Amino acid sequence: MPWDPQLPLHAKVYRGLSYAIDNYFKDGDRFFTEKKLIAELKVSQVTVRRAVYDLARNGMLKRAPAKGTFVQKPQPKKMSNAQSVAIHLEDWESSFLSGLLRQLLSGSSKSHLQPQVYYSNRSGGVSGKDGESWNQADVGGAILLSLAAEHVTKLSRLYLDEGKTVVCVDSRGPGEVHYVGTDNLAVTQMGLNHLVGLGHRNICLLINEPEEHGNVRQRIEYFERLTGELGLTDARVWRCGAKFWDDSYKMAYEAMPRVMALNPRPTVIFAFDDPGAWAVLKWCAQNGVRVPQDLSVLGFANDKPSEFTIPALTTIAHPIEEIVATALELLKQPAQPSQTRLLAPKFVLRESTLAVK
Q: What mean pLDDT is reported for the chain?
């Protein structure tokens, strides 16, 4: 490290020793003796003592009588519980959850929070991806992402009993926790308005997600109510019988022969999520059904691959950035009274829907 010729000699020694401490010593290492420094640096005892004194005063060295001088490096400041947040999700593949998680990790950092990600397995066990243990007492609050109902209830109760704030995203929890998610009524209205505007009346809502999920039940309820109000007597709900941990893509694909055998046959399939719509597109391509000429397909989620399907998928997008910002905002608020925030989706028009001829 070059020395500034304008600095006094003890300051030059201080800078050189400081550089050595930063780059060549670990916390707790024994430092050079005074005798060794005088011999190596070829400076006076007074100069060495002044430099070492300044290093100790600034917390870089610690002098222990009769033992010697030891390096003392500042320890990384640990986040307090109040600054850390646990993010829980199920241990399965989901483009939607992956997108949410990426945004949450980024948003947590900008909010000066330390996120700790934990995955729930099928049996209800919880751990980090690399096997880290989990303890609800170690964090200041929790965000639960689209968990199975029994996992939401269990985790919410554990955190609430510790006095922590809990925010559920896309999964309903006990009454004491906050909830943020996409407005299911708006999703259903948006989809039906588009399809009815194209002249479709034989609309099939394909339920390839588990019906024990509260949002699934809610969208079925809205679909049946709204199609009834619109007089769409041939509209129907097709339940694939999916359970938690089932492959939603596979459930949709395997349901297609029965769905297409309905009488009257649907002119459009409104899939519960984009993976379900991808399965419909694949089945149609393999069975000579043209999309959208013979069958329109509408998804929900706007997962990234939906831009690149053939044809590109018309879908309804979750407002992911808004969901994340709202979840982080609610995390800073006490759980009582709990709040529910329903956020508006966005319609994404592409190529997979067409007017009825």
A: 89
